[in-house]
């Protein structure tokens, strides 16, 4: 077990370095000097020089890179140009809303996706299969944020079943938090659920058509046990991989969904900082999202090893 | 290159490519898919709208009308789809929006191909460390949320059509890189690229001349699907207000405006949303259909095979554990019916080992599956009866059949590794089988499992229960599979090519185990094989199957070898390239034992 985690952790290191390098390079790729962005267009050249020295922007690239990495490791992601506050504080403030949304979306995607996929896989080539396959092809063509709009139109405006203000921090009222989260998570999860449903369908159908399913059936093991114990566990390996892929997609889509449901998450922070070229915030938020996605992938990798005895280091 | 082409370059020039007739066949297959036609028609409508927006649109898409009755109208005769927050005609904006959508869709996919394909070609062609490091890099980039990449690109380059195309192109490029790499790797391993290499054509020439034509099909399919996805991303960015300028009539921008005015004019959400959905759906349908047409997949619809209602079968001979009487197995699809097994009749006595011999495709495994009730959907027993211990089990409902399986009937299949679930321990699988037929507790079932493993010759049985199948050798795994089959003392065991995947020594050991178990428990064994040696080794009687028919049933195994009756059997015996275990003497009952391997 420890060996497994260790071997996967080693693989994550180059990933972290590359992501860090990409995020840091953002600063260089953006046209115009950061100091000019802070001081505004009217600033005189001396003042700009001074600010650049303050920020360490006059040092060579590699020194800046090392300094940035050193800071990032200790949780110092610099200060926002716009808000004049540490980036990490700003990001951490917005994180609960984003994590709630992505977590909720993932739960919806996995529940709906695995449920539908199982239904289709067990009834492979029959009506239920065709219905699920058609449904998931359809769902992959609908923009999630549009589904969100339709849900609001129907359930909030027409029926009034859900509050207009979707976000409540879980610390202030867990019930309201869950209630507000329901529609956004549902809208967010649909696209990813189609992806997971397709993967589950194929994996379950394959498992049920396998020789081991035949062996167990021929030996008289009941069908439900073959489906839920044997086929499902075998199918979980590719399904887990699809779910990891879904997490990346969910993060991206959540940035859009936040606007539909007026969630105070990373999306709104990123949006305002992209528009105002508040680069440290863009960097910081991007880095945190990447770290979370990498962490989820690491967990999935470990789960993969637990599920699949052949993937364990011997 | 000289004027006299050397033979190798000629070979290169005639490397397999998709010829004209193949293209026609693909198109014909495509034309038979109604969903592909629907998708294509909608896309043609979108393209038509984009080209002719100038005269199709009833209004100027940028013409504002800030009068009270001009703003945020619902559908009217003048504005069939209403007006937006600036009083602009929604229909006109949708028509002009088609230009934006297609430009963004095709443009960003083109960018993605231009970035991704060369990377993939390089990785696939170079292989080795370049490939290993490069692929890892591609994976890392691809794991980043695409929306984040788009945000970064917009932060760097600002808003506008070029930066949107670049942003979406970057997101999709790794997808194309991975695809191009896989196809290049596959092509590289083919002979004709090597031949070209030998003849001294430049590497880049080989890449572009040989690999690109093979890449074309998948590129088009993936391109179509990603064009749809690009339209969604553009609409999301415009919806957020960091895509195109708000005056540009993009579909996503229209949705973005609809959000702010949703309480006043909810109708605004529908026209752009439905248009985006239909267009993306059309690209997906077309991509999927082309993919199916290229791979020649036609989804066959199978029909359930129902057995002709027959009179109750005559009672079976008490000495026979299995009587197959005049069984026909059919495969039924919507278009036609194929007889896989034709009027087969065969019996297995109690404690008797009967071999069913035939080449692959002869229908012998289908017959075995018919007895086990494991036929695939669309295949079934059309007529005849299968009497197991006197009871007709052909067409028996699944529920009743389950009680029969394991207790009276069991099976051992080919390839023991595939016959065991790779992610469950041997102990779990054995105890589940044991508990399916008994009321033993988990612990008692485990003890019984260890006993069974010991019986089939797995050493250190109790400790091996927690091992996974991949920790067993092929022969040992087949012993485990036999233990599963034996767990409830069945009256009949069907061994379907049970020794074919094993090496000769292991094969002999497993056959000996089956004979020993038969001697101890007295169950009948139907041994399905293509191996004449196996028949000579252990069978009491043998039947020969060819093209779905049982052509000969011998009175005993030796008579089949000594005096084959049917011409097919004679051919089968003559075609045997290596006389399995009796090179010199003609096989006889005694000779068989003499020539058997020493360990028996």
In words, what does this structure look like?
With 314 residues, chain A is mainly alpha-helical. The longest helix of chain A is centred in the last third of the chain and has 39 residues. Chain A is globular and about 85 Å long. Chain A starts with a helix and ends in a 7-residue tail after the last helix. In chain A, 43% of the residues are buried. The model of chain A has no long low-confidence stretch (mean pLDDT 84). With 600 residues, chain B is an alpha/beta fold. In chain B, 53% of the residues lie in helices and 12% in strands. Chain B contains 22 helices and 10 strands. Chain B has a 6-stranded mixed sheet, sandwiched between helices. A 4-stranded antiparallel sheet of chain B has the order 2-1-4-5, covered by helices on one side. In chain B, helix 1 crosses helix 8 and helix 9 packs parallel to helix 10. The two termini of chain B are 67 Å apart. The N terminus and C terminus of chain B are likely disordered. Classes of the chains: A mainly alpha (314), B alpha/beta (600).
Helices and strands, with pairings:
The complex is a heterodimer of chains A (314) and B (600).
Chain A: H1 2-29, H2 34-39, H3 45-55, H4 61-73, H5 87-122, H6 127-139, H7 144-158, H8 174-208, H9 211-218, H10 223-261, H11 266-275, H12 279-307
Helix pairs in contact in A: 1-12, 5-6, 5-8, 5-10, 5-12, 6-8, 7-8, 7-10, 8-10, 10-11, 10-12, 11-12
Chain B: H1 7-13, H2 20-31, H3 34-56, H4 90-126, H5 128-143, H6 146-157, H7 161-188, H8 191-198, H9 203-240, H10 251-260, H11 270-294, E1 320-332, E2 337-349, E3 353-357, H12 364-372, E4 379-388, E5 391-392, H13 398-404, E6 409-412, H14 426-435, H15 442-455, H16 461-464, H17 474-486, E7 492-496, H18 504-521, E8 524-529, H19 532-538, E9 541-546, E10 549-553, H20 557-562, H21 567-575, H22 589-595
Parallel strand pairs in B: 3-8, 3-9, 6-7, 7-8
Antiparallel strand pairs in B: 1-2, 1-4, 4-5, 9-10
